[in-house]
Amino acid sequence: MLEYLPLCDSLGVFALIDPANAAHTDPIGNVVLMLAVILIAAKLGGHAAARCGQPAVLGELLAGVVIGNLYLAGVSWFEPLKSDATIDMLARLGVLILLFEVGLESTVAQMLRVGASSFFVATLGVLTPFALGWGVGAWLLPEESGYVHAFIGATLTATSVGITARVLRDLGRLQSNEARIILGAAVIDDVMGLVILAVVSGIITAAASGAEASLADSGWILAKAVVFLVGALTLGVWLSPHLFRAYAKLSGPGLLLSAGLAFCFALSWLAGWIGLAPIVGAFAAGLILEDHHSMPFAESGHRSLADWIHPLSSMLVPIFFVLMGARTELRAFQDPALLILAGVLCVAAVAGKQACSLGIVGGGIDRLSVGIGMVPRGEVGLIFANMGAALQLDGKPVVSGAVFSAVVIMVIVTTFITPPALKWSLARGAARRTS
Amino acid sequence: MLEYLPLCDSLGVFALIDPANAAHTDPIGNVVLMLAVILIAAKLGGHAAARCGQPAVLGELLAGVVIGNLYLAGVSWFEPLKSDATIDMLARLGVLILLFEVGLESTVAQMLRVGASSFFVATLGVLTPFALGWGVGAWLLPEESGYVHAFIGATLTATSVGITARVLRDLGRLQSNEARIILGAAVIDDVMGLVILAVVSGIITAAASGAEASLADSGWILAKAVVFLVGALTLGVWLSPHLFRAYAKLSGPGLLLSAGLAFCFALSWLAGWIGLAPIVGAFAAGLILEDHHSMPFAESGHRSLADWIHPLSSMLVPIFFVLMGARTELRAFQDPALLILAGVLCVAAVAGKQACSLGIVGGGIDRLSVGIGMVPRGEVGLIFANMGAALQLDGKPVVSGAVFSAVVIMVIVTTFITPPALKWSLARGAARRTS
Fold first, then answer.
1. pLDDT per residue over B133-153, tens digit each?
2. Which domain holds residue A145?
3. How many domains does chain A have?
4. Nearest Cα to A372, choosing from A431, A428, A329?
5. Which residue in B8, B9, B16 has the most chain A C-beta atoms within 10 A of its own C-beta, making it the best mutation to test that interface?
6. A373-402 residues touching B, CB cutoff 8 A
7. Does the CA dihedral B25-B27-B30-B36 come out positive or negative?
8. For residue range B244-278, what is the model confidence (pLDDT) as tens digits?
9. Residue A37 within any structural domain of the chain
């Protein structure tokens, strides 16, 4: 066998097969079955939501909740879906493509025009929930240390932009100033969240080890993030038309899509490498690319880049939302003692983001909708809570199991109330303007 | 910690994050960087191939070979790409979408019209290489048992349809009868390969254990495969218009794409579950779906299903071919002793498939092109060889390390010569017809 083993390497050639799996079976079989289930469930959920006058994304989330919690009724067919590595990656690719597509609908100049509003909205949207979260911690968990209260505050600061972007797209409102303020604020929020995470965990680590907290690391993280955003938006705007013109000189079909995706993927990777969420890079790539980037490619197909991306997002985006729904554990809601802390956290999470509307510069903006658009917390809040669970202080985790579960419920609630609330507030704003 | 552990479950909620990875990093970062490299490499390779008058797929393969063998020059940046699980799955999804797209270009009726030719082409394309491979084994490895010779023959029978389908698409020849004969023969070939694999390994296992070989298993496998193909093509043609009409009644965007993909994925899964290659199911799904399936969806978008699928295949298909190239180990060619066996195997592999042209019923067909189109062996030959390496007879593997390496070289050579050879023979056939 020793002679054979090194040759196993060359087995990789062309194989695309698992060397351990000599039978004529292909692991893609299970993946495509899950994809078929997700695609159909998404459309059924979207249809049901549309019939109730709700954005399709709410239906996709709820279809996911049904699939993911059928095991409570004894049906465990769909359990592998929740943890399948390929489905997980396709979902991540889906939200990346969604933010790229959303970015394509605006330009850097349009975003800068509401830049001041976005900045103040993001700042208030971080400070107020942080203070409220700290206060909730001090009120309901007086026996815990101030570090724990600070960490609870930190978990309330984040904004998960995927849900809001999708609702705005479902309602055809991506071109509004409200949408641009929210999306810009979400990007700035991501940078601020990164810094807060570094500062809070730096202070706690220092406290645990008895050393003094160093703020140099946080400053370095902030500097990298700002350099990335400013660099991408200035250098990108200047350099990308040249890159695209050079790429368009190649022969072959599908060049525009390939150029757009490669640009989006490169910036997403760079954002992730800096420590930002990759979706921030995808969104920046979308902002940078404008119609004139497609011009040199016009001879081959006459479709715009958005037209090319649309089928990709139609396939991949529902995977993200159905999976998000499927991973919602309804069991989390079964502990009454926990529900009090969770309920107060939810109120603080929603109320805290309403302060955002005070940050808007200038008139004619539907302030309530901006506040509601900032509500969903998503994965960033969980990353914070998770980090707190891993940090030890006086021999026990900073974020206890009960606090962690309450944060999970807060994330679920803020995510699911956003689609109907945002639809209602946008309709209300539009009615006011016409009356 | 015990209190915290069960709650880790609820961490899955919304998270899409690795619980072990508390930092603000997303594993999609590495995947999208690899995707950007693959997309750009594919276009550069395709451009170079087009400049040399070759099909784009040859350029994508060679771009992959460069990426995958740069480590020989000390550059190991791209090594993770070869074994990344997500890239592997996206490649498999790519070849599935390619065969679905290729299937969409023909109908079941058109395939049945050349069905007799396909059947005889497949039969000769299995029997002749099997006999030649057996002969090569008996000639060059006289000290080995007849089982080994039979296994070498079996590895030469397979046809890997991905390359040929892609070349025919690159050249805009998918609508020709030659294309339909090759594609139909490749599907039948897959069924025959499945049966041969069962028979040969059944006989060897029986010989090793001293028991008598049972042919009931092979018969059962054949029956399942035939029932799947006949069932899919009759029941599918009858049932799918009803399913599509019902689905079209849902509200929401992207319904046609979702219906088409779900249908393709469901049949791919079913094919894989039966034991056939999932691409056979995807191809069957493409054949079944026709323009009238899209009609009920016409109100929403006015794009045909093929238009919806095209951007997906533009993104995913190059991943398959670049990865195939990247996994080609040039080191396999460095052993001179091996090259004799490999060279003779290559001659047998190419010559054996030329017998296919005798199976074509009726005139006006470019017989040489059909023979060349059947040449690439791809992953199925390797699956056979791999199975032989796992089977033990008299305490040593039926397929030794040296034979395995020779098979790998045969697979590489037959795959890389097909694009230029097929382009040449199709041009020659067209010139003859017009002269």
1. 999 999 999 988 888 898 899
2. 90-316+335-422
3. 1
4. A428
5. B16
6. 378-380, 382-383, 386-387, 389-390, 397, 400-401
7. negative
8. 999 999 988 889 999 999 999 999 999 988 888 88
9. no
